[in-house]
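Record 1 of the preview.
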Amino acid sequence: MKKRLLCIIVAMLMVLPLVLVSCGSQDDKDKMKEIILGSDSDKPIDKAYTLSLWIPTDAITVKGQTKDLSELTQQQKDQLLKSYPDVYEFLKRVDDVEDAINEILIGRSYYTKIDIVPVNNEYYEEAIAERFAAMDAVSNPGDMNTLGASTAYENEVVEELVGSKVLYDLLYRPVDDNQLDIFLIRDYGEYSGYGQYISYIDSNYIIPLNDPQNGNYISTTGSYASINKLIRSQFLEELKVNNLIYALPNNHLYADQYQYILVNKELVDSYDEYNVDDMSDIYSCTDFINSVGNSGLQNVVPFVASFDDLAGYNYIDKNLGFGGITSTADDGNTVFNIESIFSNEEFSKYVKMYKELQDKNYVKTDLADGEVAAVRIFNGTSLEAQEYADEYYLIKTAAPVADTSDVYASMFAISSFSLSYDRSMKILNLLQSDTKIRTLLQYGIEGEDYTVAVETVDGKDIEKINIKDDTYYKMNILYTGNEYYTYPGDNTEIDDWDYVKETNLDVIINPFIRFDYYLENGNLTASEKQFIIEHKDEFYALILETYEQIASMTLSEYEAFLEVYNTDFDSKESALKALKEQIAELSSIQENIDKKNQEIADERAKMTANGDMARYEELVQKLDNANKRIDEISAEFAAGIFDNFDEQMQLYNDVLIIEGEINSVAERLIALENELAELIENQKTADAKIVELNDKCDVIIQEIETIKSINVNAYELKTSDNYAKLLEIYNKVLTLY
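->
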């Protein structure tokens, strides 16, 4: 926006003793020009920039309308007033806010103005995307910053007579069509703050703020190192991509859902054996809960809690079906391993405790009228918990957990199409640290858009802001900078941020915070991504089904579930596999017999074809005849007849010769027949062994089936190779952070 500024004020702040000039001589006017514009050798005003600040607004705007009133023709203004009177009035208010902020900026000799570009929430992201697409089509990231750093702008001085003072209008370099300086990235509706953040980085649309090659603005040694004191380091760390931070998160309440154990003061104090100082978690309260349950007190519920409370275990994502415990590695880095929630000891510990009390009818999920709880689990803010402080001791068991939508809810970034990275960073720093500018941008002009009332409480004056009902200026406090540096809201004092600040110090970051993004965009192999596509829905459904199943189980049913889940199926499957391999080996004897018979048949056919078979059969017959005659002569010897002794001796010699001839003709056939005889003998033993091994297999199979029948889901989760691989890939995703 081209705005007339009170340059007397500018000059006064620049060189106060010299600028009190009336509408006097021409020399006086020339002197004023020199003061404002500088000398020929030193003209700082040549770098007088106008930077655009794009923010979403709760006010109604016209889609596609990003120009302010000063840039519209009179005809356009008339048409806007006629068609959208509320929009026209809102832009007038933006005009005044812009003037007020620019007066501060110029008064501090920043040589910088801002052009506020408000876009309605409904189409803010669309407008930013269109702006980047248009700029990217005609220029490169960094071009405007180079232009701003290297090209002086020839400013004009316009003199006007107002009363008895001469005012000068410094015409700052207007916002270029290819320029976008500061804009908001947020988590809104279908637009993921984290997804957009990464997308802008990948597109080279935003600049790193801690890069030594580019300003090094917010490093501990940079020009704006104080940022590290304004924004908690834990949240800045979450914005790091390859150790670079590309945006500044606007301080806000990140998460405030604590978990408390509430212990009834009157009841616990009535027992000598129990002391609330000894109760640090739900497990140290169980004896007290059981004592109250055993007492049978009327209208006293021993334990009020939901199965979903999962006390003492923060990192569970039922939609993913995984959880885990963080630990600190030797190098000081935090390590987080994904595991099935059904494998986790903390999960099982709480479930068993809960179901044991449930089986005794000591648990309800809520209180009826007239009932009080001995112990209850409460999830809510610390302020809400204090409402129970009169009746219950409060034991904090879990801190708030910030997820992706919390951490990436609202961030200001500097566009790589900015006219000046340095000046943009200066403005960005003011949005994080300057109460006056923050309040102007958020609430408008005091007296016109809001008033400040002073109340005296305990002798102390307290200022509170009261927003006018009829103001057209409407901004979301989350989207206009560091919330701590302005009023929290209507009829509030600035000190009301104490609760938010204290709560944010307790907040822990959910380790799954970037999981979904890296699951889709991380450096996984094509086969791993395909595996996830093919199997994750199947297991998500199984996990949720199992979780709901466990919620409705009795203690004995849950213990049976654990028996199945904790059974060493691998050892049983290994034993079964070994038995089946033995059976297969023994069963192969019959196959080998068949093969040996075939080999014998092939050898006989070969010998028949070359005439060896006839010779072999002739020799076998000759051998048989010789052996028969030897047997006859042996019988004669037994009867005392020894006339054929010489013949027998000759036959023995003939047998040796015949056997040699047989071996020469049919050595391979004889060997095959001997091997066959051995196989046939072994088969008799193998058949008996196979029966024995099959019996053992049946026992193991029945054991597995019996255990499996107790809970099919537990068996499927424990034994599925696909599920194990899914866990392996998910742990790999964590290493991509």
